[in-house]
Amino acid sequence: MELVGVTKRYGEAVALDDVSLAIEAGEFFCLLGPSGCGKTTTLNLIGGFLPLSAGELRIEGRTVNDLPPHKRNVNTVFQNYALFPHLSVAENVAFGLQMEHLPDDEVRRRVGEYLDLVGLTGLAGRNPAQLSGGQQQRVALARALAKRPAVLLLDEPLGALDLKLRKQMQVELARIHRQVGTTFVFVTHDQGEALSMATRIAVMDGGHVRQVGTPRAIYYHPVDRFVADFIGESNLLDGELTGQDPVAVVRLADGTAVPATPGARAAGPVSVMVRPECLAVGRAPIPDGAAGLAGRVVDVAFLGDHTRVTVRTAAGDVVAARWHADGQAAGALEGLLEEEVVAWWDPADSAVLAR
Question: Which residues pair with 10 in a beta bridge?
Fold first, then answer.
């Protein structure tokens, strides 16, 4: 599937501005960004619920700009599920197949197949009101997949679920995607959802695509400060990049010079991004070849699976380190509170971003 120079305007307002994306068959592709960034507009354009203002949309190699939704070989799972309350689970799944006038035995076979896929075989006779939120979401998914679309669109389908159930459904969605091999295009503002399920992510902001890449590439190698700040937790240190690779350094506000990321080439004002789990804190000297800062520990917080150590540097920056340690080691970290320490990292684990 391809979007080529796709634009959507509402009068003078531009909701989507010259967006181009190539989504491979069988991908689990996430559109990720804050509210109002254009991700749901993109999904509605693909689904045919909105007309394009400019550009071209191709599905299975053919242009579908002027085709209505039912002729695009796509199907959609909405956040509110949109189930028919007066129909049983099986009848909900069968509805779209019956509208296509498939033979009754084929309808029954597909209903059984897709209810089994989502783990609801024993609930075929119930009505939606008798199901939990997670079960209703599975019915909506089975109904959409039963028509065997080339592209399945998912508009924040987990948004109405509680945290525990949402995490369970993330695992289930990833499993179902692997089994059916259908192209999934998933809209979310939740970075954790995107990172845990997607094969690739498009980070959006202000009607533009900022970066497209694998979850790992976007997390560790963001292209700009917005992506670094939006995806997970980041330590961002402002400075000036001087010199040339492999001896380039970033000179921070207090004059401290830290080795730049290998390959860094953007001269002038930059931000050094270091993820908390890549940062070490202690009283020992900074190891040879590492980048580091002196500072004082201002907070130690035990958070169950990790301990978060917050350091205020001499330049006034606040950086956080995430330690995955057992209870005894985490307790030892509390002894660093108000102590003078150094925080260091491997330059290869940082990213230098132009400001």
Answer: 13
**φ/ψ of residue 84, rounded to 5:** -85, 115
Q: How far apart are CA 271 and CA 263, in angstroms?
A: 15
Q: How far apart are CA 270 and CA 237, in angstroms?
A: 8
**Contacts (Cβ under 8 Å, ≥6 apart) of 105:** none
Quote the CA–CA distance of 50 and 10 in Å, as a whole number. Answer: 11
- Chunked into runs of 10 residues, the chain (355 residues) has average pLDDT values of 97 95 97 95 96 96 94 90 92 94 96 94 93 90 95 89 85 93 95 94 97 95 92 91 79 85 78 92 87 91 86 87 66 78 91 87
Instruction: Please give the single-letter amino acid code of residue 329.
Output: A
- Residue 292 CA to residue 285 CA, distance in Å, equals 9
Cα–Cα distance between 309 and 302 in angstroms, integer? 9
- Cα distance between residue 303 and residue 308, in whole Å: 7
Model-wide pTM > 0.85? yes
Distances (CA, A) of 197 to 29, 31, 71, 193: 9, 12, 28, 6
3-state secondary structure of 126: coil
The 10 Å CB-count burial string (b at 16+, else e) for 289-326 is ebbbbebebeebeeeeebbbbbbebebebebbbbbeee
Cα 180 versus chain centre, distance = 21
- Provide the Cα torsion 274, 280, 283, 286; round to 10°: -60
Element of type H or E holding 99 = helix 89-99
In a 13 Å sphere around the CA of 178, the CA atoms on its Cβ side amount to 9
Let me know: does 337 contact 212? Beta carbons within 8 Å: no
What angle is formed at CA 306 by the lines to CA 300 and CA 308, rounded to 5 degrees? 30
325/245 Cα distance (integer angstroms): 35
